[in-house]
């Protein structure tokens, strides 16, 4: 491994410097109005395998057409001077299929969540249809399962931080969008801290109204209550108990959420430099050049081409049954 040169710091948008090349570069600074469009154009998706099948994968490419990891190669922040973060969309609003960044696979494509050999779908719990937000994750974050959170007294869940995007547009799986962080909810899942960030797409027509968690209460009344109820009940149709929360289910504000993100980003940096035990997590990346897990563009292409591909698409198999769980 080459000698590690000093980290290049721009806010939280850390990149590893290899000679004169900045590995995980941020978009150049432009006006606030132009940043979102620029960020959205940086990435595109490529599907491999058959939708609604175990081998289905959504890979991401950068603007140069090179395969990248949505977990490791997309910068956390869009603009180091603003509250603008990149969000990787895993599950579009109103859909039921559980999709997730494959943290244990090379280049971490988005894949179906599988349990006991079967694809997983969230139930429709009246009055909700599937996921009630665009659901995804912040890149370059990791909730360390060996590090106890000082506010919840529980360790992390071994995944990137989850995001609930509350804008009006239904987004696509694999889409990368700039979001403003508004607050967070602390779900305790089987003794692990599972943060659920509340955010809004910067390109949403009403985004300028939203600056903190209180604005969600003001401009989208009932949405936070519905979010809490959704997370509390979504496993009940599977025969599991209701989920529990830290802080008695209170939503924490933007300042609190930003500290959670900062901590998870530090954990990710340690993971990429082998300073933390990542267990089965695959840290293969193409842009963090001084990471021991760095690979070439050619190696990344070979990894993707080894995944089976089918142009045929099956019909949507989302669950249409409604569950009535009111008390």
TrEMBL record:
Q: What is its EC number?
A: 3.6.1.1
Keyword list, A-Z: Acetylation, Hydrolase, Magnesium, Metal-binding
Q: Name one Pfam family in it.
A: Pyrophosphatase
Record bears the keyword Isomerase: no
Its required cofactor(s), as named, are: Mg(2+)
Recorded GO molecular functions are:
inorganic diphosphate phosphatase activity; magnesium ion binding
Enzyme class, spelled out: hydrolase
Q: Which InterPro entries does the UniProt entry name for this protein?
A: Pyrophosphatase (IPR008162), Pyrophosphatase_sf (IPR036649)
Q: Which GO BP terms apply?
A: phosphate-containing compound metabolic process
Organism superkingdom: Eukaryota
Q: Looking at the keywords, is tRNA processing present?
A: no
Q: Which Gene Ontology CC terms are recorded?
A: cytoplasm
The subunit field of the Swiss-Prot or TrEMBL record says:
Homodimer.
What family does the Swiss-Prot or TrEMBL record give for this protein? Belongs to the PPase family.
Full protein name: inorganic diphosphatase
């Amino acid at each position: 491994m080459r000698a590690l040169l000093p980290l290049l710091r721009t806010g939280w948008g850390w990149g590893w410097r290899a000679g004169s090349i900045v590995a995980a570069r941020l978009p150049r600074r432009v006006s606030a109005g132009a940043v979102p469009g620029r960020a959205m154009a940086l990435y595109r998706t490529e599907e491999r395998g058959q939708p609604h099948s175990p081998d289905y994968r959504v890979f991401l490419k950068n603007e140069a057409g090179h395969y990248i990891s949505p977990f490791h190669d997309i910068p956390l922040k869009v603009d180091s001077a603003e509250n603008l973060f990149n969000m990787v969309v895993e599950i579009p609003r109103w859909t039921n299929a559980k999709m997730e960044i494959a943290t244990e696979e090379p280049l971490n494509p988005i894949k179906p969540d599988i349990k006991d050999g079967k694809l997983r779908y969230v139930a429709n719990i009246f009055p909700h249809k599937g996921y009630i937000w665009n659901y995804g994750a912040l890149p370059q974050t990791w909730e360390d399962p060996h590090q106890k959170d000082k506010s919840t007294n529980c360790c992390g869940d071994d995944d990137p931080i989850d995001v609930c995007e509350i804008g009006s547009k239904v987004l696509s799986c694999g889409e990368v969008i700039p979001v403003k962080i508004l607050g967070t909810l602390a779900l305790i899942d089987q003794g692990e801290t599972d943060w659920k960030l509340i955010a809004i797409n910067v390109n949403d027509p009403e985004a300028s109204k939203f600056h903190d968690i209180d604005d969600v209460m003001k401009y989208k009344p009932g949405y936070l209550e519905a979010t809490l109820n959704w997370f509390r009940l979504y496993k009940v149709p599977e025969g599991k108990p209701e989920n529990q929360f830290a802080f008695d289910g209170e939503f924490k504000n933007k300042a609190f959420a930003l500290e959670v993100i900062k901590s998870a980003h530090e954990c990710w940096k340690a993971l990429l430099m082998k300073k933390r035990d990542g267990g089965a997590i695959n840290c293969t990346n193409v842009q963090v050049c001084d990471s021991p897990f760095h690979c070439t563009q050619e190696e990344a292409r070979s990894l993707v081409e080894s995944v089976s591909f089918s142009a045929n698409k099956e019909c949507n198999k989302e669950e249409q049954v409604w569950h009535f769980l009111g008390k």
